[in-house]
What we know:
This protein is an alpha/beta fold.
Amino acid sequence: MCRHRLARTVLLIAVCLCLNALSPLRLFAETGYEAWLRYAPLDDSTRQKYASLPASVTILGDSPVLHSAQEELIRGVRGMLGRTLGAAKGEPKESAFVLGTVGNVPGLRSRSDIGADGFWLTSGRINGFDCIIVAGNNERGVLYGVFALLSKIAHGENLASLDEVQQPYAPIRWVNQWDNLDGRIERGYAGRSIFFDNGSVRTDLSRVRDYARLLASIGLNGCTINNVNADPKVLADDFLPQLARVADALRPWGIQMAISVQFSSPKTMGGLDTFDPLDPRVIDWWRKKAEQIYQQIPDFGGFVVKADSEGQLGPSAYGRTPADAANVIARALKQHGGVVFYRAFVYNHHLDWRDPKNDRAKAAYENFHPLDGKFDDNVIIQIKHGPIDFQVREPVSPLFSGLEKTNQAIELQVTQEYTGQQRHLCFLAPMWEEVLDFDLRIANHSTPVKEVISGRTFRRPIGGFVAVVNVGMDKNWLGHPLAMANLYAYGRLAWDPNLSAPTIVDEWTRLTFGSDPLVVKTISDMQLNSWHVYESYTGPLGAGTLTDILESHYGPGVEASERNGWGQWHRADHDGIGMDRTVATGTGFVAQYPSVVAKMYESLASTPEELLLFFHHVPYTHVLRSSKTVIQHIYDSHYEGAEHAQQFVEQWKSLRGHIDDVRYAATLARLEYQAGHAIVWRDAICNWFLRTSGIADTKGRVGHYPDRVEAEAMQLHGYEPVEVSPPETASQGKAVQCPPSAQKCTAIFQFKGPAGWYVLDVQYFDQNNGESKFQVRVGDQLVDEWTANDHLPATKIGGDSSTRRRIPGLALRPGDQIRIDGVPDQAERAPLDYVEIRSEDRR
Ligand code: GCV
């Protein structure tokens, strides 16, 4: 008897261990890998609600997508409710979850209101058994229905009288990855490519499968896997079988694969002496290439084309138009069901900046509006949401209103190229919401961008959404643990752009971190404020991000935008700032909008202030609605934004113990970094404007830092002062670093304040071409040491590499000697900027 019980206990433990091992939560711990698909166990009372759910799940069909749907339901229910559903096939033989397309579910009435990829969640009796039915318009719809059902369970919703139809707002819901075949990712901030390595498709595509699952869970249905600056090799005969392997990994999750192609491929890799789109040999080449691809990948999605842009060759080489170019490829794909995404990001990056009429913002409309109606029906013009390039604030592209007879898709950017590169918290759903809701007033009717791009306004056959995502090999996909909210939000908005940012962030937070009210409130609040905060300490009033546009697109670099052909000008000079884009006195860009919108932007008085400097050049003394001058607003905004970034740290600290330690610590580290870098931004921008305008900050902050000791003013042993360029990216324009031959350098100063508890911030530079070591001593006592190995996007001293080490809780007495030792490594010579010491009471 006793032996029996023991055996049963051992068996039970074994089963538990086994289930735990299978549970996704246990498998991936809390690294962030599972993102919003954690399926964390529900509390007992919520579980109770689902006590009478069916014990099995049956699929009506045998496709990979249906199998994914079934496995997902089993996985989700097991994680959240601790029960393993039985897996079956065919009509139910007991009470079951029934998964199938509408026509295949016995006894289910047909409904005409479920469109492609849509689903119906309902309950009913089948063969005499009570069933919960997930019926899709197609198999993808079934999969989306399962994810929706699981999300309801995760949120503790009642399933008793289930009867809900959902369908996506638009047919195109794609992501673009800018992955290079060598494994690097253009504007990727979370490690190397999950698709490619060293010129080939990776052998292990398990992360690709998991990525596809994440995409499917938010209703996305396509993925372009390589950089729009495409490597011609992607079309090589021997590469196609490798692409087929990627398509195989994506297919079970309903994700169609596409690739970016070089328009010049017929010549660069195809052996022709031309890529003229009207040349019969070129036409034939694209036709054969498409045939070859579809033989290996029957559900291939199509091609993305970046041509005549940023050095990519295009049809202009032969005096042809983008329509000629898009159509030659579209015709090759047409019979196979493929589409061409032709990017409207076509502009001259050698614009003459001296000509006040020149304006990069005008390019997309000028290039594409005249071709409206000339594109084939399987061409989609992919349009960046703003007329420049994913800046922190832009108006919507006027091209959305200029293509009535052409399919369109909006291009958004999840990868935070100009918005903090996933090191700064910047939740973009509020921005996308504004963009999608913006009423273009075409023909003076209500025409929000979302309706135009989805094809509704002009009754186009296809249209929708594309986002550049750039997940990488970092365990948590996007680097910053909170950045995945952007991918989640993108998918949710592509599915339903009428959802609000607060609703989306609430969902995401609950699924990602659980439903503790403090957690949900704090994270939602931080996320919802973050875009505005980032904008405040980088580039307010529509001036653009004011970043270094020539290299990293990351840290401050006010002058990088000016006096070059790239056209991201803000025209800030001694007297004023802003691009005059009006018809009356400026570049005339405003005229590209429908008349109601054009009228609003033409007038300084009616232009929304957050876009003021995008449309108007004003003196620094121009008075805003707040009664502040523009220059004072710039100063105040940067100080307030940087202050708010410090508050993010405190808000996050209130969650200690409310979420798991790993994600808590990883997020805290990013937020602390951001708080330091926001000050770098604040000081660089404010000092540049102070120097340029000559107008002082009425609050006396800019240029005055009473708590700082500049490194160049310390007693230096080995360290040498250096001038930093641009000067505003280091305090007082100077730093210190070791000479090339030095083994170790030292900077010493005396503390002069009263005795007390202090916070000491060491501002130093962390380049990615070396890993210097630092030690800080008070007297003889070592109080902190660290290695500068954060891999910031910089090989030199400046606004990209400037970062801080905070040493809290330090007891200091007058006369204490503070000493910093720096040990250089390779090209990074232990550079230091300043030390700031503040009493703990003043934090
Ligand atoms: C893939 C910006 C980015 C480029 C990117 C380009 C594009 O200019 O900085 O890295 O190239 O946009 O969207 O094509």
